[in-house]
Amino acid sequence: MKEVAVLGVGMYRFGMWADVTNATMAREAGMMAVRDAGLSFGDVQAAYVGHIFAQVMSGVRVMKEFGLTGIPIQRIENASATGSAAFREACLAVASGRHDVVMVLGFDKMTAMIQQSTQGTAPENMEDTILPAAFFALWATRRMHERGMKPEHLARIAAKNFNNGALNPMSQRQADKPVTVEKVLGARMVAWPLTTMMSCPIGDGAACAIVGRADLAKKLRPDRPVVRVTASTLQSEKYAPGHLFIGPVVGPARMSVDSSKEVYEEAGVGPEDLDLVQVHDAFAIEELEYYELLGLCKPGEAEKCIERGDFELGGRVPVSTDGGLIARGHPGGPTGLAQIWETTLQLRGEAGKRQVENARIGMCHMMGGGSVCVIHLLQRD
Amino acid sequence: MRPMAVETRPRVPMKPGLFTVPDDPREPPKFLGSKCSACGEHYFPRRAICARPDCLSESTVDVEMGPRGTLYSYTFVHLPLFGSTNLEHMDGYGVGQVDLSEGPRVQVPLAGKQGDFRIGQTLQAELDTLREDGGRDIVIIRFRPVEGAQ
User: Fold this and answer.
1) How near does any CA of chain B get to the CA of A129, in Å?
2) Residues 57..96 of B with a Cβ closer than 8 Å to A: which?
3) Theoretical Cys-Cys bridge with A214: which of A5, A241, B55, B65, CB 3.0 to 4.6 Å?
């Protein structure tokens, strides 16, 4: 197997961009990544396109923005984990020796999707009576019952992510002054105990990564450290009693545990070796549960670690350093690639005011409804 | 005062194949599920192949489950219920995960206010009208806490 590196990254800032098309966002993010890699589009040998709210042909059509070079193009969809799943396929294509330089491009306009949705009268809307916010609120209620969690713990996570987002120019939500626990708790209630500020916003955006042979990375950009992809996994659910077959479902919890064990083993590291972590924090309760499921703390200790500031910038292992889904945003297809963008910049030492000092190993964790768990470990030389 | 006449319109499920719609409105609905003939696992909704990785039997039989269950977790959503024109649903609605006595966990709306729900309480299934359509009531299944039950 060939060693794989992230050669370049690019983003079109997530936001409510009513007048900007998918093609424009994708082109700008893609060309940023190509230039960042020190390449031109003519060097790209294959493309994996992550796009959720898709028309037929949307993968190949948007790729025409870069020029028609005849390369293989595949569209990948795996709900929230779409960009992460596409990234994995690109890494496998390089690792197998099939291609040397591959583009992974994610884009979506969730604002347009919501405008186009029906009034909820079709039989297939039966499941829409349970919103994702309600599903994750059920996690929160259960956690309060079993572990004595308080809404303040969730608010502390959300405030952290808002404040990290304020240090990231690509973050959708940009707080003009430090966000407090009280402010998060006082925001509008969506599904008790989750407020709007404990939930990710809807938005539009694009993100791109160029992955390629690790030996190319040093040649193309000798001026900076090589960021390798040292582990990759994608798991779907294993049946266990209590499994939910209907509704917006992410889980079971076991999936994050098993997936993280797999990547730790593949890379020969443990959770104590991680310098920073990005997770699927669509709702603050998720981030709290993932602290434990990914092994960042022991089961039952998440609340104590939150109170101690373990996962804040400057803490033991910073999580959602770019603002996470809650602040940086979650348009869909590009979300997992925004995690790769952030982790790559951090490992290169290019993350500006939110830089994690001497960051060497980063984890990117995404969940996709249905559900799947995708995890990548990135490591600099 | 004369008692009001009770109008009963025909009731049809929003999506067929998930729950029963009894002719007698006083009778609670049941969940349409499957039982694996090989290992005995119960499922909602119906499925042809057992999902247990150590079983995967292709022999399942149709069963009806419920109408009672135990509340595993709950929330209250502060938005109107999607697809409903029922005034009762405009200020929000409860949602719960409920363990049926046969085993499966289901995720459905709950009748009542946030303060009415407790983890571990017994609930009973009922049909709830989302809207009227051509003289028929479009219904979904939900659970309501059982008064006095543990």
Assistant:
1) 5
2) 72-79, 81-84, 93, 95-96
3) A5
pTM of the full structure:
0.95
Tokens, residue B56: 């995967």
Give chain A positions within 8 Å (CB) of B47.
245
A234-293 pLDDT tens trace: 999 999 999 999 877 787 788 999 999 999 999 999 999 999 999 999 999 999 999 999
Residue pair B31/B18 in contact by the 8 Å Cβ criterion: yes
Give burial (CB, 10 Å; 0-12/13-18/19+) of B118.
exposed
pLDDT tens digit sequence for A92-107: 999 999 999 999 999 9
What is the tally of structural domains in chain B? 1
Q: Does a structural domain hold residue B88? A: yes
Query: What are the backbone dihedrals phi and psi of residue B130, each rounded to the nearest 5 degrees, phi first?
Result: -85, -45
User: Is residue A213 within 8 Å of A94, Cβ to Cβ?
Assistant: yes
Are residues A245 and B44, on separate chains, in Cβ contact within 8 Å? Answer: yes
Range name among A75-84, A123-132, A248-257, A270-279 with the lowest pLDDT average: A123-132
B106 in Cβ contact with A246 (< 8 Å): yes
Q: Is B136 on the interface with A (CB under 8 A)?
A: no
Sign of the alpha-carbon torsion through A264, A268, A272, A273: negative
For chain A, say whether B143 makes contact (Cβ under 8 Å). Answer: no
> Cβ of A244 and B76 within 8 Å?
no
Q: Is residue B72 part of a domain?
A: yes
The closest CB to that of B76, out of A124, A192, A249, belongs to A192
The verdict on B118 touching A (C-beta cutoff 8 Å) is: no
Give the percent of chain A with pLDDT over 70: 97
CB contact under 8 A, B103 and A141: no
When divided into structural domains, chain A yields a total of 1
Find which of B36, B39, B73, B98 to mutate to test the A interface (most A CBs within 10 Å of its CB). B73
Residue range(s) defining the domain that contains residue B72: 66-145
What is the span of the domain harbouring residue A33? 4-111+202-220
pLDDT in tens, B102-150: 999 999 999 999 899 999 999 999 999 999 999 999 999 999 999 876 5
How long a stretch of residues is chain B? 150
How confident is the model over A4-50, as pLDDT tens digits? 999 999 999 999 999 999 999 999 999 999 999 999 999 999 999 99
Token couple for B31: 């969940």
A344: nearest Cα among A227, A209, A232: A227
- CATH code, domain with B83: 2.40.50
Would you say residue A345 has pLDDT above 70?
yes
